[in-house]
Design brief:
This protein has 307 residues and is α/β, with parallel strands linked by helices. It has eight helices and nine strands. The N and C termini lie close together (11 Å).
């Protein structure tokens, strides 16, 4: 229950006051690592590393914060710490990326990919396993981790940031918590968000209302890039989400499966934009254990309690 409380309080759309997360016992924090070399705080990441000596490199869980691409911070990382502690041999990373007041799409995914390349290039220095990288994000962060999962080979979204363009930005697996997946089908599905609002978060992301920027909306949608070699997905979504429509999850899950990409959809019964329960957390742990540790565990899809 303590983990569930931490997870709820860390979610940027619920937490109004920003705080710097304190690493749990047995971990140390290495903060403000500049993954681009720009000196821009929005292009820095924090590492949370196990202090105990290990015989082999640690798998890595990377957290990408939410906030409508216009708010949020890597400092709000309690959600990440809940996933890496508890006996699992994981390291964690929490990344900042440029918000829409600094740059529109595709700056956000360029930053995320630069961060993954930096982490891979510095894996030996921090005892990380460059072949075992899980990415987890909520809301706008869910959108960005989904993009990482489906665009490993898409050159136009790699960008040219940082010194490690020789490194891959591919990830091992994706935990997408209520992230948008297709902006072209977003409207009219029960969301209070109007994608044609010129002052809305989506318009700030793609440079204008969706009705005038449909091609930009398509290019910013994870569903556009699905190919059979994409990373396995765990999609988590409440069936009463009034911000990101539940249909975004079901449509994305169906599209991934049609392309033979492993995808498991967890539906929060009566769940809103963020929901938490013991069974959900257990399946999140199991998903990472399967893909980062090679454990032969099953992750049942379908309904999970939202409380």
């Amino acid at each position: 229950m303590r983990f569930l409380l931490i997870l709820a309080l860390s979610f940027p759309l619920l937490a109004q006051c920003q705080k710097i997360s304190t690493p749990p016992a047995g971990f140390r924090a290495v903060r403000d690592l500049d993954y681009v070399g720009s000196g821009n705080h929005r292009q820095m990441l924090d590492l949370y590393l196990p202090e105990a000596k290990a015989d082999k490199p640690h798998p890595l869980v990377v957290y990408i914060h939410g906030g409508g691409w216009e708010a949020g911070s890597k400092d709000e990382a309690d959600v990440l710490l809940g996933l890496i502690k508890g006996g699992t041999p994981y390291a964690g990373a929490s990344i900042n990326y440029r918000l829409t007041d600094q740059a529109p799409w595709p700056a956000q995914i360029h930053d995320c990919k630069a961060a993954i390349r930096w982490l891979r290039a510095h894996a030996e220095e921090y005892n990380l396993d460059p072949g075992k990288i899980s990415v987890f994000g909520i809301s706008a962060g869910g959108h960005l981790v989904s993009m990482l999962g489906v665009t490993g080979g898409v050159k136009e979204l790699e960008g040219d940031l940082g010194k490690h363009r020789d490194q891959s930005s591919r990830v091992t697996c994706v935990l997408d918590f209520c992230g948008p997946s297709d902006f072209l089908t977003f409207g009219g599905k029960g969301s209070i968000i109007d994608p044609d609002d010129p002052k809305g978060a989506l318009a700030k992301l793609i440079g204008g209302p969706l009705k005038d920027r449909r091609e930009e909306g398509r290019k910013a949608s994870p569903v556009t890039y699905i190919t059979p070699d994409d990373a396995p997905f765990l999609i988590i979504h409440g069936d009463r989400d009034t911000l990101v429509p539940y249909a975004q999850a079901t449509e994305f899950d169906a599209a991934l499966k049609a392309a033979h990409v492993p995808s498991t959809l967890l539906t929060g019964t009566d769940g809103g934009h963020v929901f938490l329960s013991g069974p959900l957390v257990e399946r999140m742990f199991a998903f990472n254990a399967r893909h980062l540790q090679g454990k032969d565990v099953q992750i049942p899809g379908g309904a999970v309690p939202s409380k």
